[in-house]
Amino acid sequence: VQLQASGGGLVQAGGSLRLFCAASGKIFDIVSSAWYRSAPGNKRELVATITNTGIRNYAPSVKGRFTISRDSAKNTVDLQMNSLKPEDTAAYYCNIRTYPSLTARRTGTPDDYWGQGTLVTVSS
User: Fold this and answer.
1) pLDDT in tens, 45-102
2) Per-residue model confidence as pLDDT tens digits over 108-122
3) CA atoms of 74 and 107, how far apart (whole Å)
4) CA distances from 74 to 58, 71, 123 (A)
C-alpha cells in the first residue's frame, strides 16, 4: 500500500489550502483515514479523522476551520484548511488504516500506512 500526499505550500494567515492523499496497492476496505501534522520540535499530532462510516473527528485547534473528506471509490482523503494560522505551520501526513490482505480482513487485523508528508507554511 502506498500513499501519495500533495497540496502543501506557502499561504498567508487567513488563507486556505487543500491537501490531497491518494492510496494505491492492495487495499481491502479502508477502516479509517486521517491527517496528522508535525511541527518542528513537536510530536506528531492528530488533526482529523474520518471512519469508513463517515464519522469525523477533529483536534480542538482546527475544529470549525478544517474539513476532512474521503472518496471510498477512489481511495482518496482530502483536508480542506480554511482560516489558516501561523501555528498551523507543519508537515502534514496522511494515514489510512486498512487491511492489506483478505487474511488480515478475516482476522480483523488492519495496518496503518503513511504518506510522505507535505509541508504547509502559514505566514503572519
Assistant:
1) 999 999 999 999 999 999 999 999 999 899 999 999 999 999 999 999 999 999 888 8
2) 999 999 999 999 999
3) 25
4) 23, 5, 33
Angle at 47 between CA 98 and CA 99, to 5 degrees: 5
Q: Measured in whole angstroms, how far is the alpha carbon of residue 43 from the centre of its chain?
A: 16
AA letter at 54: G
Contact present, 62 and 36 (Cβ < 8 Å): no
Q: Which amino acid is at 42?
A: N
Question: b/e for 86-118, b at 16 or more Cβ within 10 A?
Answer: eebbbbbbbbbbbbbeeeeeeeeebeebbbebb
pLDDT of residue 95: 97
Query: How far apart, in whole angstroms, are the C-alpha atoms of residue 118 and residue 44?
Result: 13
